[in-house]
């Protein structure tokens, strides 16, 4: 397995940074304080835009020179015309949205490519925690009690690939990691984080 270098302390950001082409138009949904967008703008010269629901994080993103507006990403995409971006990013947020299929469809309407990164609930530690405890899984990656978790949907690598097949999306690139190591074998069992680059046919 190869070592995945970190960007801003996150391996998924490094993988996303490796996917995004220089000079492209990028929209990051649930961008937080726009750490990734700022890095992409500085290192890849992208035209960066973001959507974030937390007003304090929006202010911090704007203060660092990134164009971010406050809004609910489930409803904000309707404001953008078809094909407005080259890449629409949804990193570590898919499992927290109310209507994931609608959000993914809108991503592919406003962007030529979608990039999603999500925690893989099929990872062996999650399975083991559930089997041994008989309760909702709690691991280092998923430290929340069931009543306090931000996660609304629990998806796996295979779940996303099955959805893509049903929707006839093209999976252009798949990258998986566990810790800072890239996973190349049995990703639904071994990967903690999955990153997919996908588009419409």
Please, could you describe this protein's structure?
- The protein has helices at 11-19, 35-44, 55-63, 73-76, 100-110, 124-133, 157-167, 187-190, and strands at 25-29, 47-52, 67-70, 85-91, 111-119, 170-178, 181-182, 193-199.
- The protein is α/β, with parallel strands linked by helices and 201 residues long.
- The chain has a single domain (11-199), classed as 3-Layer(aba) Sandwich (Rossmann fold), CATH 3.40.50.150.
Key structural traits:
single chain, about 200 residues, Rossmann fold, eight-stranded mixed beta sheet, 8 helices
> What is the third-level CATH name, the topology?
Rossmann fold
Spatially, the strands of the biggest sheet line up as: 3-2-1-4-5-8-6-7
What is the number of independent domains? 1
- Poorly predicted ranges: none
Q: Tell me about the biggest sheet? A: 8 strands, mixed
What is the name of the CATH architecture?
3-Layer(aba) Sandwich
Strand element count: 8
Q: How much β-strand is present in the residues?
A: 15-25%
Distance between the termini: 31 Å
CATH-assigned homologous superfamily: Vaccinia Virus protein VP39
Class derived from helix and strand content: alpha/beta
Mean pLDDT: 89
User: What's the Cα radius of gyration?
Assistant: 17 Å
Morphology call: globular
Helix content: 25-40%
**Order of helices and strands, N to C?**
HEHEHEHEHEHHEEHE
Describe the protein's topology.
Elements: H1 11-19, E1 25-29, H2 35-44, E2 47-52, H3 55-63, E3 67-70, H4 73-76, E4 85-91, H5 100-110, E5 111-119, H6 124-133, H7 157-167, E6 170-178, E7 181-182, H8 187-190, E8 193-199
Parallel strand pairs: 1-2, 1-4, 2-3, 4-5
Antiparallel strand pairs: 5-8, 6-7, 6-8
């Amino acid at each position: 397995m190869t070592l995945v270098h970190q960007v801003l302390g996150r391996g998924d950001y490094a993988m996303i940074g490796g996917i995004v082409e220089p000079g492209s138009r990028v929209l990051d949904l649930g961008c937080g304080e726009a750490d990734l967008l700022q890095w992409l703008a500085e290192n890849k010269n992208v035209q960066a835009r973001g959507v974030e629901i937390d007003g304090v994080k929006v202010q911090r993103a704007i203060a660092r020179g990134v164009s971010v507006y406050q809004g609910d990403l489930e409803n904000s995409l309707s404001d953008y015309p078809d094909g407005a971006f080259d890449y629409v990013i949804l990193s570590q947020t898919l499992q927290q949205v109310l209507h994931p299929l609608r959000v993914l469809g809108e991503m592919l309407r406003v962007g030529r490519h979608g990039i999603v990164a999500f925690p893989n609930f099929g990872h062996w530690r999650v399975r083991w925690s559930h089997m041994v405890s008989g309760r909702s899984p709690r691991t280092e990656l998923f430290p929340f009690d069931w009543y306090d978790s931000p996660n609304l949907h629990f998806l796996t690598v295979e779940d996303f690939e099955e959805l893509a097949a049903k929707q006839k999306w093209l999976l252009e690139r798949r990258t998986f990691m566990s810790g800072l190591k890239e996973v190349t074998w049995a990703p639904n069992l071994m990967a903690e984080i999955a990153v997919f680059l996908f588009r419409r046919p």
